[in-house]
Design goal:
The complex is a heterodimer of chains A (about 280) and B (about 110).
Chain A (H helix, E strand, L loop, with lengths): L4 E4 L3 E4 L14 E9 L7 E8 L6 E9 L6 E8 L10 E6 L10 E8 L6 E6 L2 E2 L2 E5 L20 E4 L9 E12 L58 E3 L19 E3 L2 E3 L7
Antiparallel strand pairs in A: 1-13, 1-16, 2-12, 2-15, 3-8, 3-13, 4-5, 4-12, 5-6, 6-7, 7-11, 8-9, 9-10, 13-14
Chain B lengths: L4 H15 L5 H11 L10 H4 L7 E5 L5 E5 L5 E2 L2 E3 L10 H17 L4
Antiparallel strand pairs in B: 1-2, 2-3
Helix pairs in contact in B: 1-2, 1-4
Chain lengths: ~280, ~110
């Protein structure tokens, strides 16, 4: 059994009720997204990883994708966030675009991005395999002053949460593991997680302190666990993530438990991956 | 919700600022097919790129002197701003910048956002 799943190009995970979670009843400006991926080839132009959409209101709340230009040869990560109150077409979608192509080499890689858009300039930090990846900001401000505006996102309107799929407009082909999405209000709030310490521990190629040259790593690769005890999502102290999909095909889609249930429904087939990113 | 063709084009051009800032035939083909315009080099030719602005809009400049567009009827402004990792304005070659602004104006004109 591996702690990873395969999306075969026709697989999608869908949830229509996550927006009803009480912690999403307030507009939020901060988030952390973390996941492992293993993929081989550039795919469709838009390869969705995780999305939070509203079917009834215009546009989306969040779209994170692996994006390859039409007839391009490299794939980039892009996170798009929407300002809910801006008039349509006025450039309310803010994009964080990783400056370097991501590897699609059949190996496991870890990507993580954290953001706060309720301050200017917008704060964002991204890392690929534990190495900081600068992001450029793309947005067309509807003002000649070019003033960026702090904003929050109303995720409660999102009744279409998807992993690896975008209404068949783009479908992920590859493996995913340890999909984690935490949306929250204040950058100072305690998530109950950390990186490389007692909270989130991300192993494999990610977040390893290599130590002195020639010496052994000081932070050996370990599996990602959530919660200060490293037990599981239920052991978390602080905020529970809205999405934490972990384990094999029997568990990944179940997401973290809670009320209302957070599980995803499977479109197509979800199977165990041949490998996972953990030693 | 599947990304609209127009927003897909806009996103494509944003990535092009990293991947093909000096122009790319693939981008030109996508512009032509999405906007229904002639197959011409737009992302490498500023004169061609200038033709992409929707009717009722005019080219102008933003507060930094960068390429922008405004709608004649209400002065609605599209700047197509891009910053680097340190939030400094990021230079983009003129034809591609022009294409981005023009498609941004098309988005505004059509009320399409995703």
């Amino acid at each position: 059994m591996t702690r990873a799943v395969t999306f075969n190009g026709n697989t999608g995970l869908h949830n229509s009720t996550l927006g009803q979670l009480s912690d999403l009843s307030t507009d939020l400006s901060c988030g952390v997204l973390s996941y492992w991926y293993r993929s081989i080839t550039n795919q469709s132009v838009v390869t969705p990883i995780v999305l939070a959409f509203s079917k009834s209101a215009n546009g989306h709340c969040l779209r994170h994708m692996h994006f390859m230009r039409s007839r391009g040869s490299s794939t980039y990560v892009m996170l798009q966030l929407q300002q809910p109150t801006a008039p349509p077409g006025s450039g309310e979608i803010t994009s964080f675009l990783g400056v370097n192509p991501i590897p699609l080499d059949g190996q496991w890689h870890h990507f993580m991005i954290a953001w706060n858009v309720n301050t200017v300039p917008y704060v964002r930090e991204a890392a690929l395999d534990g190495v900081t990846m600068p992001t450029v900001l793309g947005t067309p401000p509807p003002s000649s002053t070019l003033a960026f505006v702090p904003f929050t996102i109303d995720y409660s309107i999102a009744d279409d949460w998807e992993i690896g799929d975008e209404d068949a407009g783009g479908i992920y082909l590859g493996d995913l593991a340890e999909m984690y999405l935490q949306l929250y209000a204040s950058p100072y709030i305690g998530l109950g997680v950390g990186v490389g310490g007692q909270g989130i521990q991300i192993g494999g190629k990610g977040f390893i302190d290599m130590g002195p040259v020639g010496g052994p790593p000081r932070n050996p690769p370990v599996a990602m666990e959530i919660g200060p005890t490293g037990a599981d999502a239920l052991g978390i102290v602080g905020l529970a993530p809205q999405i934490y999909c972990s384990g094999d095909s029997n568990f990944f889609w179940r997401n973290v438990t809670g009320v209302p249930p957070r599980l995803f429904s499977i479109v197509g087939s979800l199977t165990d991956a041949a490998t996972d990113p953990f030693p | 919700m599947t990304m609209s063709p127009l927003f897909l084009l806009y996103t494509n051009l944003q990535v092009s600022t990293l991947d093909a800032p000096n122009g790319d035939p693939g981008d030109d083909a996508l512009i032509a097919s999405t906007l229904g315009v002639a197959s011409l080099p737009y992302t490498s030719n500023d004169a061609n790129a200038q033709t992409l602005l929707p009717a009722g809009w005019s080219w102008t400049t933003d507060a930094n002197g960068g390429i922008a567009a405004s709608r004649n009827s209400d002065n609605f402004f599209v700047g197509g701003y891009l910053t680097d990792a340190y939030d400094a304005p990021r230079p983009v070659p003129t034809p591609l910048r022009r294409c981005l602004v023009a498609v941004g104006a098309q988005l505004a004109q059509n009320g399409l956002i995703s």
